[in-house]
Amino acid sequence: MKDVWEMLAVVPCFGSLATVDGGKPRVRPFAFMFEENGRFYFCTASDKKVYQQLVACPFIEFTRTSEDMRWLRIGGEIRFDEDIRQKEKCFEKYPMLKDIYQTPDNPLFKVFCLEHGTATIDSMTPNPQKVVTF
């Protein structure tokens, strides 16, 4: 898992998030917030289509590519987390959230985490692909 954490430790950590919408894939730019206790945290707003997609089908895949052209994919089933401490951590990690939501307890502000799934690191080198289940 050390390699997974290293690829997500970049701040800001932007990548692409894939969801399902009516049986079709939807991909959009997205920010990874933080990792805690083996859970990968993200956030969104309840008035966005991505939130509606996550409620309807709670499976995601997040990917990012490093500067050395390795790529990470993490995926699985998410769950929403209303714990104010997790919301506050998002605000600490990304102060720009204050401009959007003002406070962590804004009812529009939603945090979700990927708790169990698979992480894959790959590259266009002869090195073997790394797959980790968490």
Topology of helices and strands:
Elements: H1 2-8, E1 13-21, E2 24-32, E3 34-36, E4 39-45, H2 49-56, E5 59-65, E6 70-81, H3 84-93, H4 97-101, E7 109-123, E8 130-133
Antiparallel strand pairs: 1-2, 1-5, 3-4, 4-7, 5-6, 6-7, 7-8
Sum up the structure in keywords.
eight-stranded antiparallel β-sheet; alpha+beta; 134 residues
State the distance separating the first and last CA atoms: 8 Å
Write the H/E string, N to C: HEEEEHEEHHEE
Approximately how much helix is present in the residues? 10-25%
Tally of helical runs: 4
What would you call the shape?
Answer: globular
Strand content bin = over 45%
Q: Please, could you describe this protein's structure?
A:
A hairpin with a 2-residue loop joins strand 1 (about 15-20) and strand 2 (about 25-30). The chain has helices at about 1-10, 50-55, 85-95, 95-100, and strands spanning about 15-20, 25-30, 35, 40-45, 60-65, 70-80, 110-125, 130-134. Helices cover about 20% and strands about 50% of the residues. It is built from four helices and eight strands, in the order αββββαββααββ. By secondary structure, the protein is an alpha+beta fold. The N and C termini lie close together (about 10 Å). The chain is globular.
What's this, in brief?
This protein is 22% helix and 49% strand.
